[in-house]
Amino acid sequence: MTRTVAVVDYGMGNLRSVSQAVIHAAEGQGFDVAITCDPNVVRAAERVVLPGQGAMRDCMRELADSGVKEAVLEAAATKPLLGVCVGMQMLLDHSEEQDTPGLGLIPGRVQRFRLEGRLQEDRSRFKVPQMGWNRVRQAQPHAVWDGIPDESWFYFVHSFYATTTDPRHSAGETDYGARFTCAVARDNIFATQFHPEKSAALGLALYRNFLHWKP
């Protein structure tokens, strides 16, 4: 029996590269990938991927206007859900970016990097957004990390970062000016600030782990 993973298309996000990576990860794994804005398809899917890119206020508005927000909230309560980039930030309570409320699924806030005038170890200035490869420390064991070495490199593009209220929800951390949460997890939800779809073989491995994760 073929199962379905829904990649939510609400008009925002790095949709093409995320969906292509999920399709690639799903090859031979018994999954169909549906790129959809249809709430009924999201509800019928076994698991859901929520991408996001750009300003969080725009993402939250488009998610609501698309008509798929309630289906995403239902999925977050009942089935494996993977958030990516701003799709991770949206899961938290609030973002400093344009004073934007999030979905409130994981307690925490999204804050802007404040690195003006600070220097890195090589004496170069910190740049915002953080753009490029960075090491990720696995803050706690999780099935989505299976087979991925601790301190692996993943690709980031972001100007805002997450702070979780409860450290148990911080699944991955990285350093850029200071250590911050770059992956969150709670029950059937896992989400990353970095882009697995831009992170070569280990990113595909993370997507594949998500497909087989049984919370």
Automatic annotation (TrEMBL):
Localization in the cell: Cytoplasm
Primary location recorded for the protein, binned into one broad class: cytoplasm
Reactions that this protein is recorded to catalyse: L-glutamine + H2O = L-glutamate + NH4(+); 5-[(5-phospho-1-deoxy-D-ribulos-1-ylimino)methylamino]-1-(5-phospho-beta-D-ribosyl)imidazole-4-carboxamide + L-glutamine = D-erythro-1-(imidazol-4-yl)glycerol 3-phosphate + 5-amino-1-(5-phospho-beta-D-ribosyl)imidazole-4-carboxamide + L-glutamate + H(+)
Pathway linked to the protein: Amino-acid biosynthesis; L-histidine biosynthesis; L-histidine from 5-phospho-alpha-D-ribose 1-diphosphate: step 5/9
GO terms, molecular function: glycosyltransferase activity
InterPro entries from the UniProt entry: Class_I_gatase-like, GATASE, Imidazole-glycPsynth_HisH
Listed Pfam families: GATase (PF00117)
Domain Glutamine amidotransferase, residue spans: 17-210
The keyword Hydrolase is annotated on this UniProt entry: yes
EC number: 4.3.2.10, 3.5.1.2
Keyword tags: Amino-acid biosynthesis, Cytoplasm, Glutamine amidotransferase, Glycosyltransferase, Histidine biosynthesis, Hydrolase, Lyase, Transferase
Subunit comment: Heterodimer of HisH and HisF.
Cited NCBIfam families: IMP_synth_hisH
Function as written in the Swiss-Prot or TrEMBL entry: IGPS catalyzes the conversion of PRFAR and glutamine to IGP, AICAR and glutamate. The HisH subunit catalyzes the hydrolysis of glutamine to glutamate and ammonia as part of the synthesis of IGP and AICAR. The resulting ammonia molecule is channeled to the active site of HisF.
Protein name per UniProt: Imidazole glycerol phosphate synthase subunit HisH
Source species of the chain: Pelomonas aquatica
